[in-house]
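DUF538 domain-containing protein, pasting as requested.
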Amino acid sequence: MGSFIIQRFNFSSNLIVLFLLISQSFVIQTISHENNNPTAYELLKDFDFPIGLLPKGVIGYDFDPSSGKFSASFNGGCSFSLEGSYRLKYKNIIKGYLSKGKISSLEGVSVKLWFMWVNIVEVSRRGNDLEFSVGIAAAGFPVDNFEECPQCGCGVNCNGVINLQEQVRKFEEIPLVSSF
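Structure tokens follow.
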């Protein structure tokens, strides 16, 4: 009878070990699957768009490959100037449908034209140009202008603009000197 209990214990412990191994394998596969997801910027490149269509700071995105439905979220809204004359504004969540060379039904991105804000509803790639449509009108820009992600507040050319994090870092680097 003693050997039956030992065999039963071994069977139970083997079952627990097998369960733990399977669970651990599942967790590792899930983590590695999540790590294989491209970033929102890499996803744009997969659809023949430059990464600079999205400003720095995307904190998450959703993409449905069957429909092309895409959304990206930021930690708050974002605005910056493009080529010194156009002012762009991104809401904290932007949405649209992504296909090869085209973003349609775009929501959450607007451009300031003269004195009013107008929604950009579509972005199309036409060779080496990107065409931004506001519905009744469109404007084209070279793709090269979007090779770099703009930064909220100052855009792509942020020379001379120091953001708050850089100011804090520089302040922390100043050694404390006492006059005593």
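Note for the archive: The helical segments are 2-35, 40-46, 164-173.
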